[in-house]
Amino acid sequence: MTTRWLTPEEQRAWRAYIAATHLLEDAIDRQLQQDAGMPHLYYSILANLSETPERQLRMTDLAERTKITRSRLTYAVTRLEKDGLVRRENCRWDKRGSVAVLTDEGMAVLERTAPGHVETVRDSLFAHLNEEQVGQLEEICTGIARALEEDGTRPADDDVPWRRRSSPPSSSCS
Amino acid sequence: MTTRWLTPEEQRAWRAYIAATHLLEDAIDRQLQQDAGMPHLYYSILANLSETPERQLRMTDLAERTKITRSRLTYAVTRLEKDGLVRRENCRWDKRGSVAVLTDEGMAVLERTAPGHVETVRDSLFAHLNEEQVGQLEEICTGIARALEEDGTRPADDDVPWRRRSSPPSSSCS
């Protein structure tokens, strides 16, 4: 089968996408490391927990919300637990399941860190987009995410990270 | 100072952005790990080297092209060197500098892997965008990348990753 290489337009979009996502993640991670000593993923875990009524989520649901593998989540939650920001409990309605709970200290760290984080997201992303582009970005990203998630709705499919135990080895540790 | 929180539109765009970028990176890393035993960043390093006339780049230029810190690049190049895909040489015109050279084996791996990689980029990204959206994505990402890079043009500024020795600790190893 002949490879359908990217068109020049796709090529340009792809390169710009890689550059923007790397630089943005770097800016956001730096601010969170400086202000709260944690990377973006850890902040997202706390933020997701804080948005539920009881400030808790089953580990499987938390992995799905943060779009990561369960092994990566387990590693992160263990770190957050050591810092006293999250507590793990057995799930009341599912004996094999486990629940992550945001502690008061975790909530306090989140509240203290959120203003600086939002400012960074605004400065590095939204300050450079007009209103129309905000809508375009949402539509583009929603379409991509939905398509990639639908890949994972087939039975026994492990296309989505949260159905898998592990991440690709060393992929993001390089 | 009062925090300017994100508007509902920005909030939605930001969440969609995080979901799409995580899922896309996961899909691309998985394919490259399966087919070539390397994460996306390593592939990008080989691809960047292959695009220069002599198949080589100074480490500082390679860090800038891949938008990562020099310590992260050094780590990746050391791994690629062990696998025989890249060779490091002293820079002829800058005694303190060092150059990464793509080996014939590295070129062969790249040529073998490229079709599958491009297919994944197409299936997971471009298959879900119309022509107009490809242009929008390029414009949005170019604007963001340019703004974040311009932060780094001020003297003694280390806002861009390739001017810094190290990444935020553990940010992407979580």
How does this structure look, described?
With 174 residues, the first copy, chain A, is mainly alpha-helical. Chain A folds into two domains: 19-117, Winged helix-like DNA-binding domain superfamily/Winged helix DNA-binding domain (Arc Repressor Mutant, subunit A); 125-155. In chain A, 59% of the residues lie in helices and 7% in strands. Chain A has six helices and three strands; from the N terminus they run ααβααββαα. Chain A has helices spanning 8-36, 40-50, 59-66, 70-82, 104-124, 131-150; strands at residues 56-58, 86-90, 98-102. The first copy, chain A, has a three-stranded antiparallel beta sheet with strand order 1-3-2. In chain A, strand 2 (86-90) and strand 3 form a beta hairpin. In chain A, helix 1 (8-36) packs across helix 5 (104-124). The first copy, chain A, is globular. Mean pLDDT of chain A is 89; it is low at 169-174. At the A-B interface, helix 1, helix 2, helix 4, helix 5 and helix 6 of A face helix 1, helix 2, helix 4, helix 5 and helix 6 of B.
